[in-house]
Amino acid sequence: AAGTYDKYRYGGHTYSDKPPALALQGAAAAEALTPLGITLARDPERAVYLITVLTVGVWFALGCAYTYAFQLLLGFGPRRAAFVAAVTGMGTLALPYATILANHVPSGAAALAGIYHLMRAREGPGHTVLAGLFLTFAYAFDASAIVFAVAAVILLWGSPPRRWIAFALACVPVIAAQLAFNAHVSSGLGPPAMNQASWNDPSSPFYRGANQSLFLLTSPLDYARYAVYLLVGAKGLISYTTLTLVCAYGFVRMWHESERTRRVAAAVVAAFAAYFVLMVAFTNDYGALNYGERRYANLFFVLCIALGPALAALPAGVASVAARLAVVV
């Protein structure tokens, strides 16, 4: 939050409005680097670089690894799976946002891992527990990842009660810790950034006014224009990542292939729709200086699940050209 207004004052203290999960991992990485003589005080540029590599970089690598594993789970061979993992890593905004200390890539990678293990939940309780842990890690990195609860419900629907219970119990530790933290640093259990009371200290340079609404636009037409902007505008999803058009085709293919792939497609598309509605309702990034719309970096790993089915439905040469053009464009 340094150099930004992503912080607030509560109880006489100033806090970042970001969840603490990434900061805690960064602190652990910084501590591990200290015996090597690399500290933020002595060598800040190298320290920040290595902390980013050891936190966001590791999650980015994990996201690519789970992308590969997910394609194998869908029945594709190692070559196709490796190609999809490479395109996901290099052809989306996950790559540039993996080079900075921000929570979007870790959240997206954890969400993909959670969905992967939910897909394998029938194989044993270990996968169910891992699914709960990873999905709550996604939430701990970024509260907007609550939308993946929709995906979890869809994927668990029809499962025996014991699987629901195992999943719920696995979710408890991380969620309880996050809610306890929220209660300690703000006046409620929800995300401090969404708590109007966090911004009501008139003496704070981050004061927003007691009556300022969380809804930042004023009319239905404004929201409709903003929705178009977030899709095809100057920082739109498709404008910056044309590859998502290939993913959209892949979800259509998944819907028609089998009940199993249909359920995955429904889970991811439902989570994306909920996320997009939240973005339209509660953000206003017209003047933001981010490279593209940074919040989409939470979604690219799960959206690219559909790349394998999309490419498999095209002739080999066409699929290769389409993927490469989407990356370049």
Briefly summarize what is shown:
The protein is mainly alpha-helical. It has helices at residues 21-33, 44-73, 78-90, 94-97, 104-119, 125-141, 148-156, 161-185, 220-232, 237-240, 243-257, 259-282, 300-303, 307-312, 316-328; strands spanning 7-10, 13-16.
Task: Walk me through what this model shows.
The structure is a single chain. By secondary structure, this protein is mainly alpha-helical. Helices cover 63% and strands 2% of the residues. It contains 15 helices and 2 strands. Strands 1-2 form a two-stranded antiparallel sheet. Strand 1 and strand 2 (13-16) form a beta hairpin. The model has no long low-confidence stretch (mean pLDDT 88).
The percent range for helix content is 55-70%
Structural class estimated from helices and strands = mainly alpha
Count the DSSP helices.
15
Order of helices and strands: EEHHHHHHHHHHHHHHH
- Summarize the main sheet: 2 strands, antiparallel
Beta-strand content: under 5%
Radius of gyration: 20 Å
Overall mean pLDDT stands at: 88
Q: Major sheet: order of its strands?
A: 1-2
Which residue ranges are poorly predicted, with pLDDT under 50 across at least 5 consecutive positions? Answer: none
* Shape assignment: globular
Q: How far is the first residue's CA from the last residue's CA? A: 32 Å
Number of strands: 2
Give the tags.
mainly alpha; 2 strands; 2% strand; two-stranded antiparallel ribbon; 329 residues
Helices and strands, with pairings:
Layout: E1 7-10, E2 13-16, H1 21-33, H2 44-73, H3 78-90, H4 94-97, H5 104-119, H6 125-141, H7 148-156, H8 161-185, H9 220-232, H10 237-240, H11 243-257, H12 259-282, H13 300-303, H14 307-312, H15 316-328
Antiparallel strand pairs: 1-2
